[in-house]
Amino acid sequence: MFYRPEDGHGLPHNPFNAVVTPRPIGWISTRCKDGRENLAPYSFFNAVAYVPPQVMFASTSAKDDRHMGKDSVANIDETGVFCVNIVSYEMRDVMNLTSGNYHGDEDEFAMAGLERAECETIACSRVAGAPASLECKLTQIVKLPGEANYTVFGEVTGVHLRDDCLVDGIFDVLTFNPLARMGYRDYTVVREKFSLKRPGE
């Protein structure tokens, strides 16, 4: 099968959502200028550079009560900071609860019964029980083609690692089993890993 996106795919659901998988989930916590907090998952998320460490996530839907699409992007535009919380398999249900299209006054931490902790390098909360959290300083927001498509880039200014996830000096993902997004309503979980050496190593 071949199709041009502008012509449509003719399938019951958009297959593009299932082609680039699995995708890590960035559980983005932000705080607006008046102190209200927001927590929302984004599956268009990844690390993009080592030195200095940098990450990105993209928001692709709009809300009537906020500019720049979603609460997360609007808050980051106002304050210049955000925190990326890594999602473990055991947190799948509370993560999903925070994905709803809630009004900006709603506090997803409270709604999901999640303990929060203050970040060290930025004025923002993080998910206290997350396997890892990345405190980030905004570097740029890029408006992409499409009505509500924005990509947020940030430099990592602080890293939290849960102590039980460190095994012999390695941050071991098998201690918490990362959750990842697939297509449609599907997710997957990392339960095994293997290593490959690059040519010349």
UniProtKB/TrEMBL annotation:
<feature type="domain" description="Flavin reductase like">
    <location>
        <begin position="18"/>
        <end position="173"/>
    </location>
</feature>
<dbReference type="Pfam" id="PF01613">
    <property type="entry name" value="Flavin_Reduct"/>
</dbReference>
<dbReference type="GO" id="GO:0010181">
    <property type="term" value="F:FMN binding"/>
</dbReference>
<dbReference type="InterPro" id="IPR012349">
    <property type="entry name" value="Split_barrel_FMN-bd"/>
</dbReference>
<dbReference type="GO" id="GO:0016646">
    <property type="term" value="F:oxidoreductase activity, acting on the CH-NH group of donors, NAD or NADP as acceptor"/>
</dbReference>
<protein>
    <submittedName>
        <fullName>Flavin reductase family protein</fullName>
    </submittedName>
</protein>
<dbReference type="InterPro" id="IPR002563">
    <property type="entry name" value="Flavin_Rdtase-like_dom"/>
</dbReference>
